[in-house]
Amino acid sequence: MTAVVDVHAHVILPEVEQAVAGRPGLEAHRELDARRNGAESLAVSGRMVGARIDALTRVPVRLADMDARGVDVQIVSPSPSHYHYWAEPDLAERVARIANEGTAAHCAQAPGRLLGLGLVPLQHPELAVAALDHALALGLKGVEISSHAPGVELSDPRLEPLWSRAAETGAVVFLHPFGCTLDERLDRWYLSNIVGQPVENAVALSHLVFAGVLDRHPGLKIVAAHGGGYLPVHLGRADHGWRVRPEARGCAEPPSAYLRRIWFDSLVHDPAVLRSLVAAAGAGQVLLGSDYPFDMGVEDPLERLAAAGLPDAARLAITGGNAARLYGIKE
Fold first, then answer.
1. Mean pLDDT, the chain, whole residue set
2. Using only C-alpha atoms, what is the Rg of the chain?
3. Cα 218 to Cα 167: distance, rounded to the nearest angstrom
4. Residue 287 in 3-state DSSP?
5. 301 phi/psi in degrees, rounded to 5
């Protein structure tokens, strides 16, 4: 019987925050975060994380929640708050190593049930391959990245060695945005997350697609959080632009064709949107995801999947069959 696999779950690693405490650049990073989110949302988020800290740090709590939700395996990635893309090279390299080692140690407490992803210092592309290799050497399945880093879009030629190495090793790259460059325009009503995350997913995936990254690296395993944001359900405009605008022809095929080369989690919060995602990308490209244990996630990912009313074969593939193949999990 195929294991139920949740590919979108997080861990908080206090050691990462200890490493950056008091370092130059941290205060400016926090000020930017405050401008982007607004004081009210920061306060609510602080209380939310505090109430869920056991789930974010203690393996027995995580396993009990998984059992209650019918999840056999979680793919655990560091909280995106650990990216710290403001850090200079030495600190950035240290943050990635601490995150990789901490995630591996967390997952090692439940072999077979917890698999992990590490981090790379995306803001320093020259350090990214070594950080990926470090993560893989620890037994992690790949790495988590944001939609961009300061001065580095995912289309940046300096990231070509990272994409090459990830494709060569079969490492999974989990695209999970953190922060939106629309800044203060989204500083009320939690729009920084509600609107900002889907925007960032769409922009980041568009950079990968239109720049031809997936043409040059056909074996690259990209998993997009939050169902890929706004991109998968609004591809008609992208395809039209690709056809009529010569400067949009950075990729070999229409943008919609690349959805069959990207994987997406099921965390879209609406049965109709999930059906649209499956129609656009194919059932073989969608994976179960909950964003455990944050409040923008869901506590019932299997029930949410069932509510979409997909054919049994598609539902079983999304429940765990696709993830088993992608992450090398024994069924």
1. 96
2. 19
3. 8
4. strand
5. -60, -35
Tokens of 95: 């943050």
- Torsion sign across C-alpha atoms 264, 265, 271, 275: positive
Q: Residue 54: what are its φ and ψ, rounded to 5°?
A: -65, -40
Q: What range defines the domain where residue 56 resides?
A: 5-327
User: Residue type for 283, please?
Assistant: A
Average pLDDT over residues 281-297: 98
User: Is 256 in contact with 239 (CB distance < 8 Å)?
Assistant: yes
Task: List 149's β-bridge partners, or say none.
Answer: 152
Q: Return the H-helix or E-strand segment holding 223.
A: strand 221-224
- 122-135 pLDDT, tens digit each: 999 999 999 999 99
State how far the Cα of 57 lies from the Cα of 105, in Å rounded to an integer: 11
Q: At what angle do helices 160-169 and 125-137 cross, to 10 degrees?
A: 20
For residue 317, give the 3-state DSSP assignment. helix
Under a CB-based contact definition with an 8 Å cutoff, are residues 65 and 298 in contact? no
Under 8 Å between Cβ of 266 and 287? yes
Residues facing residue 265 across a β-bridge: 287
Residues with Cβ < 8 Å from 285, sequence gap 6 or more?
Answer: 259, 260, 262, 263, 264, 322
CATH of the domain at 219: 3.20.20.140
Number of domains present in the structure of the chain: 1
Q: For tokens 């999974």, what's the residue?
A: 172
What does the block give as tokens for 296?
């923008």
How does pLDDT run across 241-281, given as a tens digit for each residue? 999 999 999 999 999 999 999 999 999 999 999 999 999 99
CB 7 within 8 A of CB 323: yes
Alpha-carbon gap, residue 104 to 106, rounded angstroms: 5
| 142: enclosing H helix or E strand | strand 142-145
Altogether, the residues listed in the chain come to a count of 331
